[in-house]
Amino acid sequence: MSVESEVREFLTSRRARVTPERAGLPKYGRQRRVAGLRREEVSLLAGISVEYYTRLERGNARGVSESVLEAVSQALQLDEAEHAHLLDLVRTRTQRCPRVGVPHRSVSARAWRGSSTQ
Predict the structure, then answer these.
(1) What is the Cβ-side half-sphere exposure of residue 54, based on CA atoms within 13 angstroms?
(2) Contact of 82 with 7, CB cutoff 8 Å
(3) Angle of CA points 62, 65, 67, to nearest 5°
(4) Which sequence spans correspond to the domains of the chain?
(5) 45-84 pLDDT per residue, tens
(6) What CATH homologous superfamily does 3-99 map to?
(7) What is the spatial distance between Cα 68 and Cα 55, in angstroms, rounded to a whole number?
(8) DSSP 100
């Protein structure tokens, strides 16, 4: 199973087990199409956009900050072990996807360009 799939599976399963009532949200309508919280509700509770949460839930964790992961963990009511697991998944995801085509330079670009013209 890929890391993206693991992130997706983990977040969707945790979202499914938290009801709106348990999260302190009012229940709208009679029938819900999803078990647990909707993505919109998780993003509201976490203080992030729906698009950002959806991207994260789909396994695209590139560039996600610790504070966002903390907010999502609180919104999904993760315990310490689950929170640690989420952090591990995201770290694994970001370590496997290094930035391609961006060379690491220890000198400034200006100094580097200047040395090549001399």
Answers:
(1) 6
(2) no
(3) 150
(4) 3-99
(5) 999 999 999 999 999 988 899 999 999 999 999 999 999 9
(6) lambda repressor-like DNA-binding domains (1.10.260.40)
(7) 13
(8) S
Residue 55 CA to residue 62 CA, distance in Å, equals 10
- CA nearest neighbour of 16 among 35, 42, 39: 35
Q: Name 89's Cβ contacts closer than 8 Å, sequence gap at least 6.
A: 3, 6, 7, 10, 61
* pTM metric for this prediction: 0.75
Q: Which structure tokens are listed for 69? A: 């992961």
Two tokens, residue 84: 């640690």
Q: How many Cα atoms within 13 Å fall on the side-chain side of residue 69? A: 21
Which tens digits make up the pLDDT trace of 14-31?
999 999 999 999 877 777
The pLDDT of residue 87 is 93
